[in-house]
Amino acid sequence: MDYPPIWTPAPGVTLYNADCLEVLPTLAGLDAVITDPPYGIRYDASHTKYLGGTDRAGQADWDLAPYDPAPILALGLPSVIWGAQCFASRMPDRPAWLIWIKTQRDGVDIRQAEAELAWCNAIQRTQIIRHLWIGAFRDSESGQQNIHPTQKPVRVMAWCMDAARVATGALVVDPYMGSASTILACIRTGRRAIGIERDPAHYQAACARVAAELQQPFLLAPIQPALV
After folding, report:
1. Is position 75 within any domain?
2. Separation in Å, CA 166 to CA 73, 78, 190, 203
3. What pTM was estimated for this model as a whole?
4. Which domain holds residue 45?
């Protein structure tokens, strides 16, 4: 089925097929931002996020499309922003980050990042989750096909909300909804959610995933963050 561009599939859950820069100024009552924004270019999910290379003028790929976090930071909300090490020079300094270690294969060349980092302004100490997520080798969602090239595990998104002390019942916005993992994490943990996705195909896939989720409630086991 085709989902409408503004869809409320359940109380406390609203999804937008739109540009987040247009929607965010219209929202009120937000409590937190949990997101994995687009950054870098020439992504290849089967190998590594950044393949390198240059354009015809000799400019490095990395310099062609840097992500600007200013509109998200301007919200002034408790935030978790994944991949922020890739645009750290544009972020406020923070003494503590969230770290997701996604491989347990020491010394094995897996041809992609073995960990991902998130900037967070709501923690005082670096916190780590170890959650295997390499191809078919997964600690969760085993056998489920990704619907987005940079899809995050729902469990990791739930963990980072707990680490950032996002309260039950809080209204969380994900301006770059992608596969809707943040939305599913909110549904499973009793938080309200707003998801915004500009790409129509990704939006439709995300809506279908949310619809399937709402057909059968899930409970996540409590996750305790590791402190370093």
Report:
1. yes
2. 17, 8, 11, 25
3. 0.82
4. 6-227
- Residues 185-199 as b/e (b if ≥16 CB within 10 A, e otherwise) read bbbbbebbbbbbbbe
- Per-residue pLDDT tens digits for 90-122: 999 999 999 998 887 665 556 677 889 999 999
Query: Rg of the chain over CA atoms, in angstroms?
Result: 17
Identify the CA nearest to 227 among candidates 102, 115, 99, 105.
Answer: 99
What pLDDT digit, counting tens, does each position of 67-90 carry? 899 999 999 999 999 999 999 999
DSSP state of 107: T
- 218 found inside a domain: yes
The reply to whether 167 falls in a domain is yes
List, for the chain, all residue ranges whose pLDDT scores fall below the cut of 50. 41-64, 221-228
CATH classification of the domain holding 33: 3.40.50.150
Contact indicator for 35, 72 with CB cutoff of 8 Å: yes
At residue 195, what are phi and psi to the nearest 5 degrees?
A: -115, 135
The residue type of 85 is Q
Is 1 a member of any domain? no
Structure letter (DSSP) for residue 9: E
Domain count across the chain: 1
